[in-house]
């Protein structure tokens, strides 16, 4: 690989001049700058980014913490973040926290030690972890008052899921509640609850986690407790898949006698049979928006708590009945 | 955060001495070393890792490239890598290449620029990309002659899948072939093909990708072309799920009239109905083994092309018939 000396020789200038061009500081004549750029290109010179970030604080590294890399919703978010950053010349470190505070702290430390210039977190809402950071932070699929956040309209999604079941004739509805400490999960739950509370339907609430572990067990308990249920608003698609499996196993006709609505729209929904009707969150777009907002905040040294809420939509597949419009 | 000066003051030594202890070079009396270590602990001092990696080449950062973060097999591998590294005090950067050479090169550049000290790749087998790297590389779920590799027994898995269908009475078998440029996929395919070739069963081959995109379309074509097939060896679990969906849609009884065996054992297998019988690859363990091998090679400056092959096993669920033992 070429050195800065070789670039200087090729451009016919001093090393200090090349350094001024690279760092964008000090006066350099336009013609000189062009000559240096041409030499960099010709020799395929790549300045040592670490050295530059150290002396220059111009690292291009961004950190992303996700709570559960095995839930397919998060890789999709991560790809949205990554593609936007890559286009803009930034680099991404991904850390997986497993919703574990200790692991999250470890990753944040790694980020700091490697001079990341901004961070996106889809994990936890414990802002105390970030307060010591002097870099912009954007929350993704998570919300607090004090930080800029990008998330999908959870209340709208919860409402929509409940309304869809009611409009399609379910009148004994089981509402599955995700982890209560996750505010987005709680928001969608409360909105669905409100819709059911204003309806004439019988309904009940069952608590669930969001992960594969225990999903089948939860589904079994659900039908043991509420065998008469004819509509299920699931906390996410993983849980919905487990509920669908258990319902089929018990011989229920879907969607004739039981309707199920998931949440997220992960890729596997359309491989299920019947394919899962669900509330679509624009995960890829959410990731890209969060990356965009973070870069804006980095460039303008701002950490204004802007909230970007993206719309959700109903993805009609085969676990809900058709209605005539 | 404490500075190196404060550590020196606390320990009653010079900054240069603290630096010698941190960098492990130059002579330091054992008592002095203990005093410095105690001061570091007491003040919770964390040396700037970037500065240290720059001057010292003692970065603790490892890079991992995965080919498709949305295929649940790879996040599981990544977790195995991550957990092992975290325990050993190393840090992980994950990059997602999308099986795209350009993106893979970008990540490798990022790794070099951030002084990673070793790399694990589950993407591509184009060794020319790594030859310029002066750091140990370990392949994971991928194989070449020239690099150390950790992978599951693909040939054994392919053989097992075919034998299981034959032993359970399928005699018109469709063998799905994954991407031909992926050697592990090709190995399991050839082994299954060999078993079928030695049997009396009718069989045919259909090409597939490994991703969600197009999986349903492939499944439709399969049953259009070979409506009589009574056993399917799938290229991976995603493709198997799509095949299962299409078969159910066409009213086939599973496993009575059609048996399906997947490959990988991703978490969603047990949420399907019927739950997918598959060849289990120990993904988490494979990740941990690759991380272990890489760290050994880093510590001993070795890049010996050791091959670690982990056994696969048949995970019997509901898409294959029971046999009496």
Describe the structure.
Chains A, B: InterPro entries: HTH_LacI, Lambda_DNA-bd_dom_sf, Peripla_BP/Lac1_sug-bd_dom, Peripla_BP_I. Chains A, B: One of its GO terms (molecular function) is DNA binding. Chains A, B: Keywords: DNA-binding, Repressor, Transcription, Transcription regulation. Chains A, B: This is LacI family DNA-binding transcriptional regulator. Chains A, B: It comes from Heyndrickxia acidicola. Two copies of one chain form a homodimer. Chain A is an alpha/beta fold. Chain A folds into three domains: 44 residues, 434 Repressor (Amino-terminal Domain) (Orthogonal Bundle); 120 residues, Response regulator (Rossmann fold, 3-Layer(aba) Sandwich); 128 residues, Response regulator (Rossmann fold, 3-Layer(aba) Sandwich). Helix content of chain A is 43%, strand content 17%. Chain A contains twelve helices and twelve strands. In chain A, the strands form two sheets. Chain A has a six-stranded parallel sheet with strand order 2-1-3-4-5-11, sandwiched between helices. A six-stranded mixed sheet of chain A has the order 7-6-8-9-10-12, sandwiched between helices. In chain A, strand 1, helix 5 and strand 2 form a beta-alpha-beta unit. In chain A, helix 1 packs across helix 3. Chain A is elongated. The termini of chain A are far apart. About 2% of the residues of chain A have low confidence. At the A-B interface, helix 4, helix 5, strand 2, helix 6 and helix 11 of A face helix 4, helix 5, strand 2, helix 6 and helix 11 of B.
């Amino acid at each position: 690989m070429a050195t800065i000396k070789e670039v200087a020789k090729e451009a016919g200038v001093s090393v200090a001049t090349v350094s001024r061009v690279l760092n964008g500081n000090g006066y350099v004549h336009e013609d000189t700058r062009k000559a240096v750029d041409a030499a960099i290109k010709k020799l395929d010179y790549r300045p040592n980014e670490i050295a530059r970030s150290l002396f220059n604080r111009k690292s291009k590294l961004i950190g992303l913490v996700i709570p559960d890399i095995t839930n397919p919703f998060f890789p999709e978010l991560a790809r949205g973040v990554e593609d936007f950053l890559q286009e803009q010349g930034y680099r991404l470190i991904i850390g997986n926290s497993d919703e574990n505070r200790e692991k999250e702290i470890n990753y944040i430390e790694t980020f700091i030690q490697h001079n990341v210039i901004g961070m996106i977190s889809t994990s936890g809402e414990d802002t105390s972890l970030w307060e010591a950071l002097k870099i912009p932070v954007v929350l993704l699929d998570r919300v607090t008052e004090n930080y800029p956040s990008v998330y999908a309209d959870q209340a709208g999604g919860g409402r929509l899921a409940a309304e869809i079941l009611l409009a399609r004739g379910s009148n004994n509805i089981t509402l599955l509640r995700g982890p209560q400490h996750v505010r987005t999960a709680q928001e969608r739950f409360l909105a669905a609850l409100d819709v059911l509370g204003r309806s004439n339907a019988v309904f009940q609430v069952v608590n669930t986690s969001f992960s594969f572990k225990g999903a089948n067990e939860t589904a079994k308990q659900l039908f043991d407790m509420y065998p008469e249920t004819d509509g299920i608003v699931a906390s996410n698609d993983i849980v919905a898949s487990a509920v669908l499996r258990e319902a089929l196993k018990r011989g229920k006709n879907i969607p004739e006698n039981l309707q199920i609505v998931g949440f997220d729209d992960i890729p596997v929904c359309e491989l299920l049979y019947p394919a899962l009707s669900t509330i679509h969150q624009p995960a890829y777009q959410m990731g890209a928006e969060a990356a965009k907002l973070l870069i804006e905040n980095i460039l303008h040294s701002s950490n204004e708590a802007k909230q970007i809420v993206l719309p959700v939509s109903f993805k009609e597949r085969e676990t809900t009945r058709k209605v005539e419009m």
